[in-house]
Design goal:
Strand order of the largest sheet: 1-4-8
CATH superfamily: Protein of unknown function DUF952
Helix content: 10-25%
CATH topology: ADP-ribosylation fold
Shape: globular
Distance between the termini: 12 Å
Number of helices: 3
Structural class: alpha+beta
CATH class: Alpha Beta
CATH architecture: Alpha-Beta Barrel
Number of strands: 8
Radius of gyration: 14 Å
C-alpha cells in the first residue's frame, strides 16, 4: 500500500470524475506518494497546520498507472506516473493535524498489505 495526502474537497471531485490528478502533476509529471513509515514526516513538512485533509490509502495492485520508487533526499518514494484511478483507493481516512500542527497516523488506518510488485522495495 502507498499513501497520498489530499484535501477532502479535491478528493470528492476526483470521485465524481473517476480519477485523480493533483495540481502538481503538470509540473512534476507524477503523483507524489509515501510509504507507511514516511507519511507523518511528509505531512509535517508539506502540510503543517493544514486542516480538511484525507490520507488516501492506495493499493498498488489496483493501480492502472505505473508506480516507480525513486530516490529523493536519500530515501525512496513511490511516484505514480499517470492519473490515479479512484478504484485503487481502498480507503480515504481523515488526517487531522494536532494542536501543534503536526500529524500522527490515524488510528483507523486499513491494514498495510504487502502489495509491492516483484522487484520493488
Amino acid at each position: 500500500m502507498i499513501y497520498h495526502t489530499e484535501t477532502e474537497d479535491l478528493w470528492q471531485q476526483a470521485l465524481l470524475a473517476g480519477e485523480y490528478i493533483p495540481e502538481s502533476f503538470e509540473s512534476d509529471g507524477f503523483i507524489h506518494c509515501s510509504a507507511l513509515e514516511q507519511i507523518t514526516d511528509v505531512a509535517d513538512r508539506h502540510y503543517h497546520g493544514r486542516h480538511g485533509l484525507l490520507l488516501l490509502c492506495i493499493s498498488q495492485k489496483l493501480l492502472d498507472a505505473e508506480t516507480l520508487w525513486e530516490p529523493s533526499d536519500g530515501l525512496y518514494y513511490p511516484h505514480i506516473y499517470g492519473s490515479l484511478n479512484t478504484s485503487a483507493v481502498v480507503a480515504a481516512v481523515p488526517f487531522p493535524c494536532g494542536s501543534d500542527g503536526t500529524f500522527q497516523l490515524p488510528a483507523n488506518m486499513p491494514e498495510d498489505t504487502d502489495d509491492f510488485p516483484a522487484g520493488d522495495p
